[in-house]
Amino acid sequence: MKMTKKKLLDTFTNFDEYLIQDLKDTELAQAYLQEILNEYYIDKDIDLFLHCLKPLIKSHGSVAKFAEKTGINRTYLYKIFNHKVKPEFQTLVNILEKLGFEFTVKIKKTS
């Protein structure tokens, strides 16, 4: 069965909406965040990590509302998600704190 471009885009839109709804569950959001951090440790792709943060932020409302809540400039947040700027570490800490999470350190497993 051949999918039209519109139908394919609608499918992705629906997936994003489901993901955003699912991420309203704190435990699921924590698992999702841990997984995207694990992926970052493997491939070091900061753009992918930042892209994956967006649905987590949207699960708390719009990006604009989240920007207001965090005190981070809305335009700056959009630039982060559009890969135009790389956020400072403190910005990432601020984002995670407003999402209800914190960074932790653990001993790396050796292979």
Give a written overview of the molecule.
The protein has 111 residues and is mostly helical. The protein has one domain (14-98). Helix content is 68%, strand content 0%. It contains six helices and no strands. Helix 2 packs antiparallel against helix 3 (46-58). The longest helix has 18 residues, at 5-22. The termini are far apart.
Task: Work out the radius of gyration.
Answer: 15 Å
Q: Can you give the mean pLDDT?
A: 87
Looking at the structure, what is the overall shape?
A: globular
How many helices in DSSP terms?
Answer: 6
Main beta sheet: none
Query: What is the strand tally?
Result: 0
Cα distance, first to last residue?
A: 45 Å
Low-confidence stretches: none
Helix-residue proportion: 55-70%
SSE topology string: HHHHHH
Summed up, the domain count is: 1
Strand content: under 5%
Oligomeric grouping of the chains: single chain
Identify the notable features of this structure and list them briefly.
globular, 68% helix
Describe the structure concisely.
By secondary structure, the protein is mostly helical. The chain has helices at residues 5-22, 26-43, 46-58, 63-70, 74-81, 89-98. It has one domain.
